[in-house]
Design brief:
Helix content of chain C: 40-55%
Oligomer: heterotetramer
Structural class of chain B: mainly alpha
Number of helices of chain B: 12
Chains: A mainly alpha, B mainly alpha, C alpha/beta, D alpha/beta
Order of helices and strands of chain B: HHHHHHHHHHHH
Number of domains of chain C: 2
Radius of gyration of chain C: 22 Å
Number of domains of chain B: 1
Number of strands of chain B: 0
Largest sheet of chain C: 8 strands, mixed
Number of strands of chain C: 17
Distance between the termini of chain B: 59 Å
Strand content of chain B: under 5%
Chain lengths: 355, 300, 448, 269
């Protein structure tokens, strides 16, 4: 009975174009943020922060990037992990080679590097579409990893060919503990998510979707196809790049290029498909699903069978169940978790009165 | 060794690897042609097929028995996938379908390792993976017997498939389906039956590819990665053309070997991982629909 | 099809239920007893599962053995929890965090047998007081305990291995002098792992005057036509194969056969020297050499005793007992030995006999690792491990390998004595590299 | 059907030519689609292009806004030669259009579709939009107001927030018209705006078209099959047949034109 929009009238177009037109939604969102900032750092264990929440936020950001490109602008890409790699290694080198480089600046710069690379690999999209484009973007995936792996300079010629992220210091304050890292990640992700939401519901997003839905018509209306597509590639890659930088600095700490495999790219694409194509919320839900489900299964099975069952058996079953759940999910709700959430809300609005 | 002769050997070697890629790509094409699904699970199917085959032989089944059993198994797998994964997803967006097949990959990999274990096995087809003596002695060319064998098998496979498509009733139906699902339905072609059939066939194709790859580099998980080798072949050949993938396979094989041998050393080598994809992009910029793919006509 | 899988699962689970009923009984009885907890980040699915299941199986079997044979270490029972990493950095980190604490118990040793995972946790272990062991992989410069207090490259690093391997090749050629003008090709997986030995090789190529040819193989390496054409072109005298995963290794060997390159001139890294790596190659693998940090085989008293005690009681971890005594499993057993020896030392040093150790005590125990010939004999592993001693500054210890050769059915040891590396040169390189790392990471090396 | 044609004096009296088509010819492969077509469109008038199927009507429109590029002939807009411009350039010049088979952005709401129609009037770049800087906000609100006017004018307030994909055909046509006029074009090209509509829908659409012409003085070039409609609402009519011009003039003149009767009307009725 509490989820009602009755009595809430939008009196100006400004109000109507708010992110959350419904008061309840606004409150819910603020409450959620408050919890995320104030409560979680204190109640969550190191395990939760380091192993679940931080990677979840980071991958939500990357999924967001993928969603901008694939969900909104309709360009199917499989290069996300590659762009993450660019971000990670760019950030490392900025911190390494520019002394006194502020961390946040380095992060932004590495995002820009990724954006540049993204534009380069986005060029084929001007001529290729659909699955062909998807396979073509694999070139980015493989080439980037190869190049980072091959040329020692990117890794400061570390004999083991890995980079070790420098400590995160902002305005003289070092972010060392899991809590601190979590908060910095949360801040960056929340900020970028807000920007993404603004673009998505603004003129920028309309241009993307126009190109996605009917590019000829879009052009006839004066929309620059090329610029819009490349812009989508750039922004998407920027998000992936920042995600990659955080992946290296706030999550793993030490990474090698081969950490950004094609498998990762696929999982990122999974995140938006499962979460909901062309929705901001979906990126978060999807990232959670794809990242946490296998962990949940593994914890569950080990809790149930412990050391009594051949662990190889458990691992195999985990894999099977994971794949099966994805398939079942795609069959049940091809529009993703975001749609499910939306439908539940619709029902809540009418509850308890059936229409 | 003489420059040209070496070049020749690189070329031939490349072409023969190309055949191996094409064999894997073939499975993709069949399914995409018939049902518009880009079946990423093909790689896993190759792995599963080979593994099951040696598995049955380990259980004591002789070659002549293990083969039909595995064929049946793969056909069944194909039918199962069509029935329980893709039919419920019919008319979904191509990305959704692609994703479903990737999910399928996990399932198949899991089942394979659950049923047959993770041990690496070897598969002996009785053909030596050694250079043809007389070629080596006379021409100084080192061409492995198994590569020749693979090429022959591939040729036979393609020939049979094209015969099936062009001569038989089913084949004509399939072509109709490939051209236009709705139309095919309207003239009373049993779409579902055709799909099921194609999935079964692609399962068998996977088995053939799996056995040849398995004989070369052992039956093991790494076989799932052969799918990656097939992707550039697919874009160049076009998702819908059987002759396309064969030609494209040869192109990719030859090109990547030549590149690795002649360009590779100057940039530190290992460029095989991405070179085919770059090649594919260049190709697409010229022919967005691939070598033999149907031209995409888009009207205002 | 799926039914087969499910069927097998069900049967597995039913069997498990029965086993559970049996095995729970004793563990309940010892609930009061002191326990030392270990976290085991294994990988039992995916491309490297064959190795993973063997190695971690070996560790678990040895822990089990210690519990059953002598009731643990001075009465302290070994207990452990397992977690599937799929050889994947992110999953590995999650496992590390998950395994780190269990109830009030703490994990003090982490052995992922995966370079990416080791790197993923490298800068966490200091805070968590976890000993990160890299059994024959990972950063070679971790051997410098002053810069890497919590990381161990026990007992032989990649750099030592390649050095030892080249020493052996030199002796085969009748002395270093004879290597002058010879060609040695390094056929490696095109990754950090594959390039790791190159610094050493380049240096020795200069010092000894042989020509080094570097031939990278793109992952996953199940197709090496181009690389072997280069081999044909260059006609090297020796090939050092630096591959990982049965896919690449067996393909390299079969490709050698395809190009008529003598297998007796190929020496593999130990990740290319297990049964899984050569079996798929069949006949082609006959005569192929590999370096081994631990040789395979059952003719070690300990191995036979484990088979008797643990597998005899049906508590073995390998689903297929035929794999007892193969390379990966033996490696696992010896890894387990390091752990247990560390526990013994720790209890002695901290004189907490019969009590659970904390992180610092465990590290102290590990740094006090001293496998004298006598001790090796006592453990029943003479010839399975080299005799070596760790210290605060030396986290590597041995730096020597055995060369083994595949006869088509099994690995045979061709160097009864351990082939040692150029310890001095390697140590110099280690300290140099570690110092660079220390500067980059603003670490002040501890005094030893 | 009857529609009051310009009952009152026109707010925007018909002026000089704004579009001049001169000897335009083009062919696809060997097939001639248009041969030496010449006609002009005057400011503020409603100009119809009629003709049997395959007469080249759509091709003509596509030439005018640059979707097709003619092999021969010249095209003038407000006196300036614009032969072979790009569609985008055409849009910037103020040429807007609808399509024979609806080309709406199916995934977007009615509101967003029409908003998208005004993209040329929104200059904020993506950063301004992302950070909601004043210009972006101002443009959003201003244009939103204009769009709401159009929505009201087309009587589609109730479906404002509905994704167009879910709308019935007739309404979609209406939304597409809305998107086209949202750009406040000088010239509006309508490709069979009433195809496949029932009588009422057609009447509505006629009204909208005429109102657009009246209120905004938009010059309208429309292709239509329904002779009744054409004759009722258009000031002048061009008749094409097999890519050739066979008639040009006021509805009455065209009705009287023998070629037209033979080639077209005779067939039609």
């Amino acid at each position: 009975m509490f989820y009602r929009e009755a009595g809430q009238f939008r009196t100006s177009y400004g109000q109507d174009s708010q992110i959350f037109p419904l008061r309840q939604d606004r409150f819910a969102m603020l409450a959620l943020l408050a919890v995320a900032v104030v409560v979680i750092p204190y109640i969550a264990s190191d395990y939760w922060l380091r192993a679940l929440l931080i990677p979840w936020l980071i991958f939500s950001l990357v999924a967001l990037g993928q969603n901008i490109l694939t969900g909104y602008a309709g360009q199917l890409s499989l290069g996300s992990a590659g762009f993450m790699a660019v971000g990670a290694f760019a950030c490392y080198n900025f911190m390494l080679r520019v002394d006194g480089m502020p961390f946040l600046v380095a992060v932004v710069l590495s995002g820009l590097c990724a954006a540049g690379v993204g534009i380069a690999f986005g060029l084929p999209s001007l001529r290729i579409r659909g699955l062909y484009l998807a396979v073509a973007t694999l070139a980015a995936q493989f080439f980037i990893v190869w190049a980072l792996d091959k040329f020692g300079w990117f890794k400061n010629n570390d004999p083991s060919g890995v980079i070790t992220a420098q400590p995160i210091v902002i305005l003289g304050y070092a972010f060392n503990t899991a809590q601190e890292k979590y908060l910095i990640v949360l801040a960056i992700v929340a900020g970028l998510a807000l920007l993404a939401k603004n673009m998505a519901r603004g003129a920028t997003g309309r241009a993307w979707m126009a190109v996605r839905d009917m590019d000829v018509a879009a052009e006839v209306m004066g929309l620059p196809l090329m610029r819009t597509k490349l812009q989508a590639f750039a922004i998407s890659s920027f998000y992936c790049g920042v995600g990659g930088a955080l992946f290296a600095f706030a999550y793993l700490g030490t990474v090698e290029p081969s950490a950004f495999t094609i498998d990762l790219s696929f999982r990122i694409l999974f995140m938006i498909i499962i979460g909901g194509v062309g929705t901001i919320l979906g990126s978060f839900l999807g990232a959670g699903f794809i990242l946490l489900l296998p962990i949940f299964l593994s914890v569950l099975f080990h809790a149930v069978f412990g050391q009594t069952v051949d662990a190889s058996l458990i691992s195999a079953v985990e894999l099977i169940v994971f794949g099966a759940l994805i398939i079942i999910f795609l069959i049940v709700e091809p529009h993703g978790l975001a749609r499910m959430w939306q439908l539940t809300k619709e029902r809540l609005r009418l509850w308890p009165f059936p229409h | 060794m003489a420059g040209f002769q070496f070049f020749l050997e690189v070329l031939v070697g490349g072409l023969l690897s190309g055949v191996m890629y094409a064999l894997v790509a073939l499975g993709f094409v069949l399914i995409y042609k018939a049902s518009g699904v880009f079946n990423f699970a093909q790689g896993a199917m190759v792995f599963f097929a080979a593994l099951s085959f040696v598995g049955f032989m380990e259980l004591g089944a002789p070659f002549w028995l293990a083969l039909p059993i595995t064929i049946g198994l793969m056909a069944l797998l194909g039918l199962g996938i069509e029935r329980f994964v893709l039919r419920p997803l019919v008319n979904q967006h191509e990305i959704t379908l692609l994703m479903a097949t990737i999910g399928l990959t996990f399932v198949i990999e899991g089942v394979a390792q659950l049923v047959w274990g993770v041990e690496v096995r070897r598969l002996d087809l009785g053909i030596k993976d050694q250079p043809l003596p007389w070629l080596a002695d006379n021409a100084g060319l080192f061409i492995s017997q198994i590569d020749i064998f693979a090429a022959v098998v591939a040729a036979i496979l393609v020939a049979t498939l094209s015969l099936v498509f062009s001569r038989t009733k089913v084949g004509r139906a399939l072509r109709a389906v490939a051209d236009d699902h709705a139309a095919a339905l309207s003239i009373g072609i049993p779409l579902k039956r055709i799909w099921a059939l194609v999935w079964a066939i692609s399962g068998v194709v996977a088995l053939v590819a799996g056995m040849l790859w398995g004989a070369r580099s052992g039956v093991q998980f790494a076989l799932v990665f052969v799918a990656l080798k097939a992707l550039p072949v697919l874009i160049i050949g076009g998702f819908t053309s059987v002759p396309g993938v064969i030609v494209a396979g040869l192109i990719v094989g030859a090109a990547e070997k030549l590149a690795e041998v002649y360009i590779g050393p100057s940039v530190g080598g290992g460029i095989e991982s991405w070179f085919p994809y770059v090649l594919a992009i260049l190709f697409l910029l010229v022919r967005p629909e691939g070598l033999f793919g149907e031209k995409i006509i888009r009207r205002v | 099809m799926f039914n087969v899988g499910i069927g097998r699962t069900l049967r597995g689970l039913m069997a498990a239920a029965v086993v559970a009923g049996v095995s729970l009984a004793p563990s309940l009885a010892q609930a009061q007893a002191k326990e030392q907890y270990f976290g085991i980040p294994s990988y039992r699915v995916g491309a490297f599962a064959a190795g993973g299941s063997g190695f971690f199986g070996g560790i678990i079997d040895y822990l089990q053995y210690v519990n059953m044979k002598e009731g643990g270490v001075n009465g302290v029972q070994m207990v452990w929890a397992e977690c599937e990493t799929e050889y994947n950095a992110a999953r590995g980190v999650e496992c590390y965090q998950r395994l780190l604490k269990r109830g009030d118990q703490q994990m003090h040793i982490f052995e992922p047998l995966a370079t990416p995972i080791a790197y993923g946790v490298l800068n966490r272990v200091d805070d968590d007081k976890v000993v990160l062991t890299q059994y024959g992989y990972g950063r070679s410069d971790a051997a410098d305990g002053r810069v890497f207090p919590w990381v161990f490259s026990t007992m032989t690093s990649y750099w030592s291995q390649i050095s030892a391997k080249l020493n052996w090749i030199a002796t085969k050629e009748g002395g270093v002098a004879n290597l002058k003008g010879k060609k040695i090709a390094h056929l490696y997986l095109d990754s950090a792992f594959g390039r790791e030995p190159l610094p050493v090789m380049r240096r020795l190529a200069k010092d000894w005057g042989f020509e080094l040819i570097e031939i990278p193989v793109a992952a996953p390496g199940i197709e090496q036509q181009a690389q072997w054409l280069r081999v044909r072109q260059e006609r090297p005298d020796w090939i050092t194969l630096w591959g990982f995963g049965a896919g690449m290794n067996s393909t390299a060997i079969t490709s050698a056969a395809r190009t008529n390159f003598p297998r007796e001139k190929m020496v593999g890294v130990w990740w290319a020297g297990s049964e899984e790596d050569v079996l798929p190659a069949g006949e082609a693998a006959k005569g192929y050499f590999a370096a081994a940090n631990v040789p395979s085989g059952k003719n070690f008293p300990l191995v036979q005793d484990i088979e008797k005690v643990v597998y005899g009681a049906g508590k073995g971890n390998l689903s297929d007992p035929k794999r007892i005594g193969n390379i990966y499993w033996n490696r696992g057993v010896t890894a387990g030995i390091f752990w247990i020896e560390a526990v013994r030392n720790g209890q002695r040093i901290a004189n907490k006999r019969g009590q659970t150790l904390n992180g610092d005590e465990m590290r102290a125990g590990f740094e006090a690792l001293d496998l004298t010939p006598a001790r090796l004999k006592a453990l029943g592993i003479e010839g399975m491990l080299p005799s070596f001693k760790l210290s605060c500054s030396d986290h590597e210890g041995s730096g020597s390998v055995k060369i083994i050769q595949w006869d088509g059915a099994k690995w045979n040891i061709v160097t009864p004595d351990w082939v040692s590396s150029d310890r001095k040169m390697i140590r110099e390189m280690v300290e140099e590299s570690a110092a660079k790392y220390a500067v980059e990471q603003k670490i002040t090396p501890r005094k030893c | 059907m009857t529609v009051q044609l310009h009952a009152h004096a026109r707010a925007f009296p018909i002026g000089g030519p704004i579009i001049e088509v001169q000897d335009i010819s083009m062919a696809f492969g060997g097939v001639k689609a248009l041969t030496k077509i010449s006609f002009d469109v005057r400011k503020h008038e409603v100009r119809a292009i009629i003709g049997p199927n395959g007469a080249g009507k759509s091709s003509m429109l596509n030439v005018i806004n640059g979707v097709y590029r003619p092999q021969e002939g010249t095209l003038r807009f407000a006196g300036e030669v614009i032969t072979g411009i790009t569609p985008r350039r055409a849009a910037h010049l103020g040429i807007s259009r609808t399509f024979q088979n609806i080309a709406l952005f199916k995934g977007m709401t009615v509101l967003d579709n029409i908003m998208a129609g005004r993209n040329l009037r929104m200059h904020a770049n993506f950063l301004e939009v992302a950070f909601r800087l004043p210009r972006a906000l101002r443009e959003e609100t201003e244009n939103r107001e204009a769009v709401e006017e159009i929505i009201e004018f087309l009587e589609i307030e109730h479906i404002r927030k509905t994704p167009v994909g879910r709308l019935p055909y007739g309404l979609q046509k209406r939304v597409e018209l809305g998107r086209a006029i949202a750009a406040e074009p000088k010239v509006l090209l309508l490709d069979e705006p009433m195809a496949g509509m029932n009588i009422e829908e057609k009447q509505d659409m006629c009204r909208f078209v005429l109102d657009v012409n009246d209120h905004y003085g938009t010059t309208i070039v429309l292709i239509e099959h329904d002779m009744g409609v054409v004759m009722d609402i258009s000031d002048r009519v061009v008749v094409l047949d097999y890519g050739k011009k066979i008639g040009d003039g006021t509805p009455d003149e065209v009705r009287a034109n023998q070629n037209v009767i033979d080639a077209y009307l005779g067939v039609a009725h």
